[in-house]
Amino acid sequence: LSEGLLSIRDLPSETTDGFRVPLYANTGLVSDIRPSIHSGAEGVGLYRTEFPFMIRDRFPGEEEQRQVYRQVLEAFQPRPVVMRTLDVGGDKALPYFPIQEDNPFLGWRGIRITLDHPEIFLAQIRAMMKANIGYNNLALLLPMISSVGELDEALVLIHRAHRELLEEGEQVILPAIGVMVEVPSVVFQADRIAQSVDFLSVGTNDLTQYLLAVDRNNGRVAELYESLHPAVLKALIQVVEGAHRHGKPVSVCGEMAGDPAAAILLAGMGMDSLSVSSSSLLRIKWVVRSISMQQARSLLDEALQMDRPELIRERMNAALEENG
Ligand code: PEP
Ligand code: MG
Questions:
Q1: Which residue, by CA, sits nearest to atom 8 of ligand 1?
Q2: Mind listing the pLDDT tens digit for each residue in 113-158?
Q3: How far does residue 252's CA lie from ligand 1's centre (Å)?
Q4: Measured from the CB, is residue 26 less than 6 Å from ligand 1?
Q5: 203 in ligand 1 pocket by Cβ < 6 Å?
Q6: Whose Cα sits closest to atom 4 in ligand 1?
Q7: Cβ–ligand 1 contact at 253 (below 6 Å)
Q8: Could you report the per-residue pLDDT of 219-278, keeping only the tens digit for each?
């Protein structure tokens, strides 16, 4: 990291007119813990639990998982850690759980798998809740939710795990629960979903892919994959409005939050926090500290008048340059 960026590590992530935009880290590997803490992250906004599952040759058991999760919660406490339940399928494969499908991104992935296999889901939730005993910095995040029915099913299982652990004499608490907004149907139901949970977190990697019908990993259509597309920006605004109508915080944990041009727009929309890879965190903090909320809002207004992502990007880059 450059000296210049390191010098702002311990300074608050706030705009020049005093609006806080807390920055969290995305992690998944135990080796990510140190760089995340070193980057000055206020916590973990997305802990991808796929990694501890990928590096094994079978599903890790409850106790095995508990130890991994506890290490992460311990390293960051008292800072919050948002742990996402297993999100395999799509582009994330487990060698010991092969899935053969014509359209993996539209198929069996994320919460769809774990609702079909409640034993996998329950073991993971139990492991997380037990890992959280004494720290109480855990929040749960549900991936690939596409309907209220799926959310309700997941909530029933989470409450069941909590109740059963209490009956077993474990001193567990019910953590905050959030939903990932990454399927377009949830954009249009953000208001309704926000009523049932404690927070929303937008997964712009998948949301962009599904809104624009562009495979996030296909180089041939990579030019069409653009998170600054006006439709994506409008979707994000709708999510913020839906969440805030019920007083629930909303964050962005997709790669978009680590893009300086996009981060300004996300701040202007009123996103309550951003979660980025530890390698982009200080750069984004620098961006936040270089603008006023007033400026971010007026740049967003300007962007919303534009039809082409490349013009939006140009305008944002010009603003970044003006600010030094
Ligand atoms: C996303 O979809 O934006 C996201 C953060 O999750 P993942 O990249 O793990 O699918
Ligand atoms: Mg995703």
A1: 205
A2: 999 999 999 999 999 999 999 999 999 999 999 999 999 999 999 9
A3: 10
A4: no
A5: yes
A6: 203
A7: yes
A8: 999 999 999 999 999 999 999 999 999 999 999 999 999 999 999 999 999 999 999 999
Atom number, ligand 1, closest to the C-alpha of residue 26: 5
178 Cβ inside 6 Å of ligand 1? no
Any residues with CB less than 8 A from the CB of 320 and at least 6 apart, and which? 260, 261, 264, 287, 290
Ligand having the closest approach to the CA of 254: 1
pLDDT level of residue 2 (50, 70, 90 thresholds): confident
Of all atoms in ligand 1, which is nearest to the CA of residue 48?
A: 9
CB distance 204 to ligand 1 below 6 Å: yes
User: pLDDT confidence of 324, banded at 50, 70, 90?
Assistant: confident
**pLDDT at residue number 91:** 85
Distance CA 126, CA 138 (A): 12
Per the CB < 8 A criterion, the answer to whether 142 and 81 are in contact is no
ipTM: 0.99
Q: Is 206 in the pocket of ligand 1 (CB under 6 A)?
A: yes
Question: Which residues are 142's β-sheet partners?
Answer: 179
pTM above 0.95, yes or no: yes
Question: What are the angstrom distances between the C-alpha of 219 and each of 176, 216, 222?
Answer: 38, 8, 5
